Structure formats: C-alpha cells, structure tokens
Amino acid sequence: MKEIIASDFEKEVLAGGNVLVDFYSTECPPCEAVAPKLHSLEKLFGKEIKFVKIFRQGNRDLADQLAVKSSPTLLFYQDGEEVSARLTGGVKRSEIVRELKHVLGKERVSEIMKTQEPTITNVDVAILGAGPGGLTAGLYLCQARINTVLVDIALPGGNVSTTHMVSNYPGFIDPQPGYMLSHNMSEQTKRCGTTYKVAVDVTHVDLQKKEIIIDGQETIRAKRIIIATGTSPNRIGIPGELEFKGNGISYCATCDAKYFVDKEVVVIGGGNSAIEEADFISKFASKITIVHQFDQLQANKTAQEKAFENPKISFMLSHEPRAFKKVGDKMVVEVEDLKTKEMKTLTSDGIFVFIGQKPNLEMFGDALNLDKWGYIQTDEDMRTNIEGVFAVGDVGSKKYRQITTAIADGTIAAIAITREIG
Ligand SMILES: Cc1cc2nc3c(=O)[nH]c(=O)nc-3n(C[C@H](O)[C@H](O)[C@H](O)COP(=O)(O)OP(=O)(O)OC[C@H]3O[C@@H](n4cnc5c(N)ncnc54)[C@H](O)[C@@H]3O)c2cc1C
Please, what sign has the CA dihedral across residues 97, 100, 104, 105? Predict the structure, then answer.
C-alpha cells in the first residue's frame, strides 16, 4: 500500500477518483490485524480503487482536521468526498468490502469479489479463539516450533480484555487492568512467532476434516484443532432485551460504564461478575440498583462486603426482570417481586446484565460430546471425542472457569499435541 504524508493528501486523495485511506499507528494490534486484509483487497480492487496509508502519529494535524481519533481508521473517498461510514478498531474484511460498495457500487464489488481465488493454508495446529486458553496453547506450541495459527472472530484477548481489573492472576502484586493483562499475553505469543488471523469471519468449521474457512475465502487445513472459543454473556430472554441491546442494555461494564457518569443504573444479577462490575460502575454512576432473583447474593464474601459498604449500591433481592422498555431516553425495567408476585417498575439511564455465560459452540455442529450444561467434555489431556480435536478454557466442561484454569488447559493441550506431532 502506498504511504503518503499530510502534504500529499490533497493530490492523492482529494483530487479525485476512488481512494481508501488507512490511518495507522505503530504498536497497534488492530492496525496489524487489518493490514493483511487491506493488502489482499488491494490486489483485488487495486485497479479501480487507490489504497493509501497515513501514519497517524506523524500526521497529527491532518488527523485532527479530519477528526480521526484512533488507529486504524479507514476512510472511503470518491472524487474528493467521503462516501461511507468510517471503520475503526478490529475491522473485518467483510466490513471493508461492505463499505467499498459505497465507492464502486454493489454490483461491481460483487463482480470483483467473484474473481478472488480461494487459498489454502496448511498448518500443524489451528487454534480457534485467542483468549487466555488459546493464547497460552499458542505460546507453548510456538516455543515447541510447531506451526500454529490463532484464529479469532474478534481481536485477541477474550473475556479478560473487557474485565476492568484482575486481582487474582498470580505474578502481579497489584490488580492489573484486564486489557493490559490480555494485551501482554497476546504480545508474548505473537512475539514468539505464532501466526494471527484475527477479527475474521469464521465461515465454516469441519472438525472431522480439520478444516476452517475464514472470510469465505481462505481454507486453513490443520493436523490438530484446539477449540478455545470461551463463552458469551447469557441473555435473559425477555421482551425488549434484543431491541435495546447496545442501546440502553449492556453486557460489558468496562466497555460502557463510562457513559453513565452521574447517572442511575440497574444491574441484573448477583454472582461475582454482577457484584464486581457493579462496584466498577459505581465509579461513574450516581446510583445503582442490583436486581437479583435469589434472596441472597451468589458472589464471594469479599465482593459482597464491598458492595454492601458502597453507599451508591442498593439491592432488590428476590426480584426478577420481566420486560425492558424505553420511555424517552430512560430505560424502564418491569420487575416481579417473587415473594409477593407484585409487579414494580424501575426507571434508570441504563441497564447492565450479568447473569452468567454460555459456551460459544454454534460453529461446531453436534458431533462433540457435551456435558449436561452444554460444555465440551474432554479427557485429562483436553482431547475431545473427535480425533485430533482438543478443547481448552471456559468452553470445556469443568467446575471453575478462571483465567488460571483456562491457561492451565491451554498448556496441557499444547504439551499433549507436542508429544504427538512435535
Ligand atoms: C465480566 C467478567 C469478569 C471476569 N473476571 C475474572 C477475574 O477477575 N479473574 C479470573 O481469573 N477470571 C475472570 N473472568 C473469567 C475469565 O475471563 C475466563 O475464565 C477466561 O477469559 C477464559 O478464557 P478462554 O480463553 O477460555 O475464553 P475467552 O476469554 O472467552 O476467549 C474466547 C475467545 O474466542 C473467540 N471466539 C468466540 N467464538 C469464536 C469462533 N467461532 N471462532 C474463533 N474465535 C471465537 C472470542 O472472540 C474470544 O476472543 C471473568 C469473566 C467475565 C465475563
């Protein structure tokens, strides 16, 4: 991709034609993740769209002038005008293609996409999921010189990257910000030389054949697959939840608490996550009401004591949400008092839901043996019932789901695989 500087912008971008501009930075994992996608799309679209990149830190005035605030930021121009939404963060290939339609038109983009050649990558091990379990397996395999690729639908880090502070990961005297801990894990594995294919669409997985298709175009063939896809937040499954998800209802305090400075918030749940995250939200919000279905909290004693001492937090125990609504810019949750059956209404500025997690297994069909809660059963080496397929971390059947248990699983699977194919 052609590198330009601020003084070239007029000539290279605004003077005319179709241009995709990538504002990038160094030491920027999402920039590294998007670079190969832009490279492959330039090969496909390069005759009709000019692809240029600008080093954001070195061209700050231009970035400020264009209100480009983070890296990477992709901008799409047609004859000097910006013609589509900007893309930032963990940008997927499919998202770039979607925005290119605003530049070239839907039909032309579809025509060009049809000309792309499928590619095949052969590796020893493919790891699906770059949370603590997958990253640790990647590190051990890489250090054993086993050709490994880490595939994730998001940027690396998993659930830890959205956890505010982690105080129980050994080796650190003080609590660590979750995003830093996961960043360090990821950089350690990457520095070893593991190949990353992250923020991709996992189009198809065939566990029997050990094939993974990403972005509808690249087939990864592996001798072994490690499933490390972790968990996602449970939904309550009541009216209004889907409608207001991301628009009044959040499942991630680290991501969204900052939007609730001096505002009132309802937190649903009573386990460790709910209570610890409510404590974090209280740094921003003025008032938090925790709604929990049981008559006592399920969180550990330390977390409970902290919450009970927090003057901003109050509790509605033995209450269950029944519906979410929006009235003006306020969120309304209807709750039932499980003891009296009385319905009550709680009005707030936002709602956070922390009611546990479910395993991410949708891609894998029904050939895997699962436990009665739907988690993957493994033997002590993390082998599943499908030959050559391992499962590690929170997606596996186990009693305790923590960073330490996920990295232990990743270690075990990697060593077991090294003994088999190393
Ligand atoms: C709010 C919260 C707070 C927590 N706090 C702590 C704590 O303080 N201490 C502690 O020890 N533990 C804590 N945990 C638990 C800890 O985060 C998990 O145990 C740990 O992250 C599990 O790691 P993992 O690698 O198994 O999965 P995850 O961290 O869930 O990572 C899974 C990865 O797989 C990716 N993925 C999903 N589907 C696919 C797919 N189809 N293809 C490819 N990739 C896919 C995801 O994008 C993700 O990056 C917390 C969890 C939550 C939710």
Answer: positive
